[in-house]
């Protein structure tokens, strides 16, 4: 730092000397931000030099060899795209038309009357996060009095997204640690108690982080209360196909609300099910009561997107449009998705078996088998999760969530040892 002397006169005219740094940064007032609770875990993992290290933090699929996986069908679609030699012109603000059509059809079903009637405003956006953020900006602008209800717990970034958009939120009960299941009564009571017209954020399937979804009967009851209270259902669908292995079955919660004639928000992501994490491809869909309403809503979503990021990227949109739009590739995708979901089920089973065999305390670990999707919510608290990382080099989020998509069969026993040690020896 360069330092100069400044001299000035005080009241008694004695000369005072003082050293002042002239090139103090204009950013002195900017404090260091804390690491992100999920993506920060990957940064810490990369810095660890221990051979035993295991990254179960971020929900990203790995092969049995713990390597990132590009789906064969994605490579095939990309090769076709290269052969066609398509250009890289700007997309319209709303994104690629073929993608928007494909994504809405995948979500609602191609024969759904809302599509046929033109009642869905679909905008390609920056994957799930960007789509949620765009919808949050829309809520802030057109429903400034409304509150968003989010599940307790939820995906770590939901609170960030609504805070950032200055949309007030509160939590509804969801997870019951006593039963390691859904607190359905608590959930219904809290949705019922919220001011009429609130937005209710729901995980379409494979709830993150708990891996616990309502049953079809419970979804009906949730829809009853939301309808009665004139709330707005707002679905986050980041795992379509990853919960049951079936794209249609995993969209059934959303479709149930749509069949009732409700207006619904749905954010979609292709990060997990097509493994397009870094392509940032997803969409925001708003089901409206009439085509004319959908047009107006879409026009305002475009208006919000334009100053934020102008228009979305094309590469991932073309991949999705090609895969979903081609019956052969669509079939291949479903098969690969089943394989990914199958591998996760296998490690889930092996982890359960290892824990049950090794843990002599009689603790019931069967909740692991009841949870679905990419994650297991272990019930480990923050100190125990710290022990997993500090002692065992197993990286996970501090809410006790582990990503089974980052686990191999070969590592299950090691993970079981670490969980048993952390659970029984650390309080
Ligand atoms: N919703 C949920 C529920 C979700 O778990 C994620 C990502 C997203 C949306 C957004 O993903 P995107 O890539 O923006 O489409 N979750 C994993 C990654 C992350 O935190 O960003 C995770 O929970 O590990």
Helix content: 40-55%
Low-confidence stretches: none
Q: Label the structural class.
A: alpha/beta
Instruction: Sketch the major β-sheet.
Output: 7 strands, mixed
Distance between the termini: 47 Å
Approximately how much beta-strand content do the residues carry?
15-25%
The shape is globular
The molecules bound to the chains, other than polymers, are: ligand KET
Reading side by side through the largest sheet, how are the strands ordered? 4-12-11-10-9-5-6
Q: What is the tally of helical segments? A: 16
Q: Mean pLDDT, nearest integer?
A: 94
Radius of gyration from the CA trace? 25 Å
Please give the number of β-strands. 15
Written description of the protein model:
With 427 residues, this protein is α/β, with parallel strands linked by helices. It has helices at residues 39-47, 72-84, 97-108, 113-116, 127-142, 156-164, 184-193, 216-228, 247-250, 252-259, 291-309, 315-325, 327-358, 367-370, 382-390, 412-425, and strands at 3-9, 15-21, 54-55, 120-126, 148-152, 169-173, 175-176, 181-182, 199-203, 232-237, 264-269, 281-287, 375-377, 394-395, 401-403. The protein has a seven-stranded mixed β-sheet, with helices on both faces. A hairpin with a 5-residue loop joins strand 1 and strand 2. Helix 5 crosses helix 6 (156-164), helix 7 packs parallel to helix 8 (216-228) and helix 8 runs parallel beside helix 10 (252-259). The relative contact order is 0.16. Ligand KET binds at residues 38, 58-59, 127-129, 155, 157, 203, 208, 236, 238, 269, 271, 277, 282.
């Amino acid at each position: 730092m360069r330092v100069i002397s400044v001299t000035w006169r005080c009241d008694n005219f004695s000369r005072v000397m003082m050293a002042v740094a002239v090139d103090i940064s204009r950013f002195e007032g900017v404090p260091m931000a804390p690491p992100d609770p999920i993506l920060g875990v990957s940064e810490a993992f990369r810095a660890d030099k221990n051979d035993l290290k295991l990254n179960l933090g971020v929900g990203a699929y790995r092969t049995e060899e713990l390597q990132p996986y590009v789906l064969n069908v994605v490579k095939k679609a990309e090769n076709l795209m290269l052969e066609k030699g398509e250009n890289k012109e700007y997309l319209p603000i709303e994104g690629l038309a073929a993608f928007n059509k494909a994504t809405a059809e995948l979500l609602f079903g191609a024969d759904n009357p809302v599509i046929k009637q033109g009642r869905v405003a679909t905008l390609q956006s920056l994957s799930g996060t960007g789509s949620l953020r765009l919808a949050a900006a829309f809520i802030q602008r057109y429903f400034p009095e409304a509150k968003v209800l989010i599940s307790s717990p939820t995906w770590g970034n939901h609170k960030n997204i609504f805070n950032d958009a200055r949309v007030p939120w509160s939590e509804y009960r969801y997870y019951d640690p006593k039963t390691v299941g859904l607190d359905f009564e608590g959930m219904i009571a809290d949705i019922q108690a919220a001011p009429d017209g609130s937005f209710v954020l729901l995980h379409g399937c494979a709830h993150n982080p708990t891996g616990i979804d309502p049953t079809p009967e419970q979804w009906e009851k949730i829809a009853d209360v939301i309808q009665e209270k004139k709330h707005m259902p707002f679905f986050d669908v980041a795992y379509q196909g990853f919960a049951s292995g079936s794209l249609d079955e995993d969209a059934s919660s959303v479709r149930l609300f749509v069949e009732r004639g409700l207006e619904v928000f749905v954010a979609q992501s292709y990060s997990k099910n097509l493994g397009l994490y870094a392509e940032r491809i997803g969409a925001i869909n708003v089901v409206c009561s009439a085509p004319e309403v959908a047009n107006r809503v879409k026009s305002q979503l475009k208006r919000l997107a334009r100053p934020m990021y102008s228009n979305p990227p094309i590469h991932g949109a073309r991949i999705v449009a090609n895969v979903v739009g081609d019956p052969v590739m669509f079939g291949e995708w479903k098969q690969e998705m089943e394989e990914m979901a199958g591998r996760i089920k296998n490690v889930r089973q092996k982890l359960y078996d290892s824990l049950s065999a090794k843990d002599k305390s009689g603790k019931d670990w069967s909740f692991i088998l009841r949870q679905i999707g990419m994650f297991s919510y272990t019930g480990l608290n923050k100190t125990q999760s710290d022990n997993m990382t500090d002692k065992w080099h197993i990286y996970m989020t501090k809410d006790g969530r582990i990503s089974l998509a980052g686990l191999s069969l070969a590592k299950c026993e090691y993970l079981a040892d670490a969980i048993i040690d952390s659970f029984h020896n650390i309080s």
